[in-house]
Every structure is written in C-alpha cells, then in structure tokens.
Amino acid sequence: MSKETQKAIYDAKELGTGKTLVLGLQHMFAMFGATVLVPIITGLSVSATLLFAGLSTFFMHLVTKGKVPVFLGSSFAFLGGYAAVKAQGVAMGMTERVALNYACIGVACAGLLYLVVALICKLFGSNNVMKYFPPVVTGPIIIAIGMNLAPSAINNCSANWWIALVAIVVVVVCNIWGKGMVKIIPILLGVLASYLVAAVTGNVDFTEVKEAAWIGLPVAWENTGLSIFGKDFDGGFLLSAIITIVPIAFATMMEHVGDISAIGSTVGKNFIDDPGLHRTFIGDGVGTTIAALFGAPANTTYGENTGVLALTKVYDPKVIRLAALYAAVLSFCPKFAAIIKAMPAATIGGVSLILYGMISAIGIRNMIENHTDFQNSRNVIVAALIIGLAIGIGYSTVGAIAFSIGSVNISLSGLAVASIVGIVLNAILPGRDESFVENPDEKLSGSLGKY
Fold first, then answer.
1. Which of 43, 54, 66, 305 could form a disulfide with 324 if both were Cys (CB 3.0 to 4.6 A apart)?
2. Are 267 and 314 in contact (CB under 8 A)?
3. What's the whole-model pTM score?
4. How far apart, in whole angstroms, are the C-alpha atoms of residue 405 and residue 413?
C-alpha cells in the first residue's frame, strides 16, 4: 500500500460504523491477553485492570490532543516489584492482599516520577535527562526482573505440566508460524487453548463463575492502594515498597519512548516532537498513578496495538479509543472476571514461563541493539553488580537488605538495591559514553507489556 493511500486512511473522517466497531474489537483482543494476565499473576483485580486500562487510554488521548493512536495496558515490568513487596509483607504477618495494596502505592509513586521527568524533558530536553539511564543500566535490571520471576512460573507449571505444555506449545506455534491476527495474539490463544483443555479434563472449578453476578462495580475499596491509610498503617513498610518499586520506572520509560517512536514510524509521524514526549509521559504517568491507587496494575504503551496498526493500515486514534471503551464496559461484568479468576495455575505458569524469559531476553536485546560495549570494564562492572545483587539478595537467606532510619524500618529487595547501585555507579564511574537518543530506531520498541 502506498504512503498516499495510508495517509488517506489515517486522515479519513469516517471509516464506517461497522468497520470501526470491528477494528476497535480487534484492538481490544490484541491487548487483552497480556493486560488480564498481569492481575492474574499478581492477584490484583481483573475488573479494575480493564476499567483503568480503558480510562488511562482515554486520558492519554486527551493529553496528547487525540493525535497518538496508542493503547495503555498492564505493564509486566513491575511484576518483580509486586512479588518482592508481597513477599516482604507476608513475612511481616500481612495478608497478600494488604501487601499488594502497599505495592500499589509504590507503583503510584513510580507514575508520579513520569511527571517529574516529563517536566524536566520539557525544560531541558530528553537527552539531558535520560543519559543517566542508558541500556547498560536498564538492560541488566530488565534481565534481573525476568530471572527473579521465573521460579514462580515453574511452580505454577508443576500443578499440571500437561496443561502448561499446551499453553507453551500453542504460544510458540502461533508466534513462529502464525499469520495475521494469529501471530499478534499468541498469548491469548495459548491461554484459551490451555484453559479449554483444562476445562474438558475436569481441572477447572467453575463454582465462583456460576455464583458471580452479570453486572457489578469493578473496584472494591479494600482492594485499593488508598485502603492502607487506616489504623494499621505501616509507614516504614510503605517507604520500603516505594524504594523497591520506583526505580523500575526508569526501565519502563525507555520502553515508553521506544513504543512511541515505533508508533510514529508506523504512522509516518514524529510523535516525540508533536505532541511531544513530555505529553506522552504525562499520559502514561497519570494513568499509572490513578490505576495503582484504585488497585489496578501499572500501565504502559502497548506494542501489541502498534502491530495491529501496521497490519490494518488504519491509524485513526478513535479506533483505539473504541477499544478502550470496550475494556471499560467489560470491567462491569463480575462473571467475566470470575471466568478469568478460575483459570488453572498451570495455564498461568505455561504462558508466564515464556513471558518471564522474554522479559530477560528484552533486556539483552536492549543492550545489543544499543551496541553496549562490554569490552569496556566499567560497563561489565555496572552490569555484573546489578545482576549479582538483584539475584543474590533475592535468593539469599536474608531475602532483602534491612536497616533503620530513626524509628522507621526499611527493607530493600534485591531489585531495589541493584537498581540504585547501578544508577549511581554508572553516573560516577569514568568513561560513560552511552546516551539516550530522542528519536530511537523503531526496533527499540520491545515493550515489557508486550508478549
């Protein structure tokens, strides 16, 4: 298709009601598999996740003046943070749900960091800010996230390896040999196939599905981040959660810029210049903060939907907004959420095993595509300490680095310690020659929210 034809489709005022509805549905399916998998893995609310994926996407389109055809779905980058905070909370005697609420506040603070960076980018330019977070820092952090999560996938798979294997095989086959939409939604197809096999073989309990209502509110107060501010509030644990999770935002910012660049390359427009990187940062950051406060996962720009844009050649942002509307409406159906909740652990384990490995692979790819020089000793030291600390502390007998500041007890996960050490070392060691580029190649759009 010629560029003139693509531009004509993108600028079209009306695509036709029928076609628009179908295209919006396709975009919803493209994001659906990965978006609902995050709450399934973490224990967050599926309904709240769908609601705030839709609302965050609407806000992103509002702040970017409706120019960028982007969807905001659940980010996998923060899975390590959720897991670390939840483990710390349980060790302190909290329930998993309460510990997750503290993690949500940490994610909300990570979203606020986007706003700070957006302001600095507006005032001083993106290059001057992001040069402190080059691939030699973010790459190993991403690698460590995937490696820390992999054991939980194996534990889930062990519930029924045959069911897990169905998910793994379907994802691999669809991703490697699939065509069209099949290639775009391998995770969703893997989940559906494995879930179906589990249901047919009697490995799914549908009791909650039968009891669930068709219509209900997607948000429950006790499952929100805001609910921690009561009589049992623990300020020290909250500070630990914030310190554990906030550094992850620097990795997701790289992901954000890569995705915005990829969307611009697909559409043929420079969205980093217009409406501006600071505006897309604001949309992503505010969306993440609001979602986290109400018990939904962090959001991120979705490469899956960029793939649909490239496939259909229809770039009108209103099609994305229609997908956001579908997601928001679906969030008010508790029966649907119950179906998702009933998914077997082995199904989750099968797709998670691939996703967690791909998270680490994305970190490696990030360094390769940015030509990180590992003949430079300072780069080797930075990467080695990040991976060594993240994995070593996480799987040591202590599990975290604990200390006190006055009356406040702070416990830092291995990932938090590794992130801080890596950022500081990269800033102070001589020979730093890597820098962030404002308009990266579209290949750098490897999203952690993407399968």
1. 54
2. no
3. 0.72
4. 17
